[in-house]
């Protein structure tokens, strides 16, 4: 892709001036493209023009300068092998669409394979067609007949690596490979990594907002798939670039130079994108006496059981999350627990189930109606997304909203890909309220909605920001409203008020959060584990409050350390987050 003629500086300057002079006489669409090109020329770069841009419909896709620059660099500066690592919400899919359109224009796209997480395959297919006129068959389409039957394919990476299709995928020589959410292949011991490692292709483009997950080995693995040998062996990489004693980088200039040949990283703060404002409205509610008694009974049971068998942490943590979500969510797991007579504590379990039955009014459901009513009365095009972690809670909320006459839509992991696409389309066209589990929280583009409710809160703040990222991203033209709901005096209120607000969670980006969490979790204890341990080990409510205040101080310290680490490494990574993701 690098066969272009260089242009000397004087010619570049004259060309840029001519372009700028002509913009005033151009149409809006032509002026936009010419401005982008003039900026590149004025920067002294050779005019290796992205010729396909003129074919794009300005109504279908509005290109931003950082996106055009990324596509240009990936094709010409990096010879068609690039890691596109922009922060969340900056339009990496658009950058790939431009690249694929340009390669179609240059007739170098006879066979193209796009691999994505399963839930994003149809979205990729729709975007490439609607914005760039690129037609791909998806492995979920009825007309898909295998990886040897089509030349332009979008498929889930897990379908491609499956026993049924793996051999066929590997037999072909692909012109172009695109891998979305490339951090999924960071572990060289997985089938996903092995598939990408064995694939044959001429050009390759990886996309991820968090290429460094837990340590720099993640970066080594991902980059080595793109450019084998760039960092040498893993041992050479560690020896040359990582000071293991101080967990800091060394030889930064050398590392930066190598990364510059393969990685493109844009940050929100470095673009000229004017993101809409984000308004956070946190509401805590006093539970009914019956809800309070249920919460206390569950908490007592969790403490007693955990003191006897710490191996049950995950299921006990689940109970503590369910009880503040809804009685319905708790009922199913408690009844299953009671059926297993070997687990003991039968009297406590029966008491909990009796207390579930005693709850007649679910406070959160009633208060949710208030929020939705406010949205409908005061905001235009009032579509609302409600997030919950539990299917049983989802169904209860849907039923309650429907009783009040709202148009409702359900979205969860049990739907097929085509069903999910139809649900989102119906929500956009019909409005109303979409109640979703966290299967919606990654990758979906829902800029047509600007109101979100956290009906129950994940204990991992990364998941909260991923939820918000569905609506607060490029293309959102209105102020975004995020409502958080919590019951007073519960673990949910402690997490929300004493932790999330202490680190100003709701104004952070995924990158900033990942840096905080990674440094906090170096000991091997996750954020959720830390919350649970403080909950079950506190001897009184006062001690619990003090414990959470101490954790908030730890978080702020980690935030400060993360900022210092960011400043130290900025010369190498240009804003790369050295952080974790909970994908």
Overview of this structure, please?
With 583 residues, this protein is an alpha/beta fold. It folds into 3 domains: 79-270, Rossmann fold; 278-283 and 361-510, P-loop containing nucleotide triphosphate hydrolases (Rossmann fold, 3-Layer(aba) Sandwich); 285-358. Helices cover 50% and strands 12% of the residues. It contains 23 helices and 15 strands. β14 (451-454), α19 and β15 form a beta-alpha-beta unit. α1 runs antiparallel to α2 and α4 (92-105) packs across α5 (121-132). The chain is globular. The two termini are 34 Å apart. The model is unreliable at 1-16, 36-47 and 568-583 (pLDDT under 50).
Spatial arrangement of strands, main beta sheet: 3-4-2-5-6-1-9
Tertiary shape: globular
Main sheet record: 7 strands, parallel
What share of residues is helical?
Answer: 40-55%
CATH topology of the largest domain: Rossmann fold
- Measured between the Cα atoms of the first and last residue, the distance is 34 Å
Residue share in β-strands:
5-15%
How many separate helices?
A: 23
CATH superfamily of the largest domain: Tandem AAA-ATPase domain
Mean pLDDT: 80
CA gyration radius, whole angstroms: 26 Å
Q: Which regions contain 5 or more consecutive residues with pLDDT less than 50?
A: 1-16, 36-47, 568-583
CATH top level of the largest domain is Alpha Beta
| Helix-strand category | alpha/beta
What is the second-level CATH architecture of the largest domain? 3-Layer(aba) Sandwich
Report the oligomer: single chain
How many domains in all?
3
């Amino acid at each position: 892709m690098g066969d272009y003629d260089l242009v000397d500086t004087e010619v570049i300057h004259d060309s840029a001036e001519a372009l700028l002079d002509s913009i005033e006489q151009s149409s809006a669409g032509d002026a936009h493209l010419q401005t982008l090109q003039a900026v590149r020329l004025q920067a002294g770069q050779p005019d290796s023009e992205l010729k396909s841009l003129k074919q794009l419909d300005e109504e279908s896709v509005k290109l931003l300068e950082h996106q055009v620059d990324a596509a240009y660099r990936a094709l010409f500066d990096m010879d068609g092998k690039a890691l596109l690592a922009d922060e969340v919400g900056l339009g990496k899919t658009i950058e790939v669409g431009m690249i694929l359109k340009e390669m179609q224009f240059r007739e170098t796209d006879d066979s193209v394979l796009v691999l994505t997480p399963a839930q994003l395959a149809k979205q990729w297919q729709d975007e490439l067609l609607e914005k760039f006129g690129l037609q791909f068959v998806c492995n979920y389409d009825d007309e898909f007949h295998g990886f040897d039957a089509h030349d332009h394919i979008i498929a889930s990476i897990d379908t491609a690596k499956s026993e049924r299709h793996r051999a066929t995928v590997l037999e072909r020589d692909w012109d172009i490979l695109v891998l979305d959410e490339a951090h999924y292949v960071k572990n060289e011991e997985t089938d996903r990594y092995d598939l990408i490692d064995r694939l044959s292709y001429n050009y390759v483009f990886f996309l991820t907002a968090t290429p460094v997950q837990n340590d720099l080995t993640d970066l080594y693995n991902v980059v080595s798939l793109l450019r084998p040998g760039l960092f040498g062996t893993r041992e050479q990489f560690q020896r040359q670039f990582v000071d293991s004693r101080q967990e800091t980088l060394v030889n930064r200039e050398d590392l930066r130079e190598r990364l510059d040949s393969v990685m493109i990283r844009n940050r929100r703060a470095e673009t000229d994108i004017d993101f809409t404002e984000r308004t956070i409205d946190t509401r805590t509610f006093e539970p009914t006496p019956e809800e309070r008694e249920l919460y206390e009974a569950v908490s007592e049971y969790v403490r007693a059981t955990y003191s006897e068998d710490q191996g049950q942490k995950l299921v006990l943590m689940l109970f503590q999350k369910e009880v503040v979500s809804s009685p319905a969510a708790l009922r199913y797991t408690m009844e299953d627990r009671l059926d297993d007579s070997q687990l003991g504590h039968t009297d406590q379990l029966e008491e909990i189930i009796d207390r579930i039955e005693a709850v007649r009014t679910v406070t959160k459901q009633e208060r949710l109606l208030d929020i939705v009513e406010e949205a409908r009365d005061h905001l235009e095009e009032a579509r609302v997304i409600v997030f919950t972690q539990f299917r049983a809670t989802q169904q209860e909320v849907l039923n309650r909203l429907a009783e009040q006459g709202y148009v409702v839509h359900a979205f969860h992991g049990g739907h097929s890909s085509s069903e999910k696409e139809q649900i989102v389309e119906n929500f956009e066209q019909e409005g109303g309220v979409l109640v979703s589990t966290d299967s919606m929280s990654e990758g979906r583009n829902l800029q047509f909605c600007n109101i979100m409710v956290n009906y129950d809160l994940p204990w991992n703040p990364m998941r909260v920001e991923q939820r918000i990222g569905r609506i607060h991203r490029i293309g959102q033209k209105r102020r975004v409203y995020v409502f958080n709901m919590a019951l007073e005096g519960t673990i949910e209120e402690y997490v929300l008020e004493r932790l999330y607000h202490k680190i100003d969670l709701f104004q952070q980006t995924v990158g900033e959060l990942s840096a905080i969490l990674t440094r906090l979790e170096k000991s091997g204890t996750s954020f959720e584990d830390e919350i649970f341990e403080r909950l079950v080990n506190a001897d009184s409510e006062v001690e619990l409050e003090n414990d959470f205040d101490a954790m908030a101080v730890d978080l702020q310290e980690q935030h400060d350390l993360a900022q210092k680490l960011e400043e130290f490494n900025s010369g190498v990574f240009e804003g790369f987050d050295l952080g974790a993701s909970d994908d």
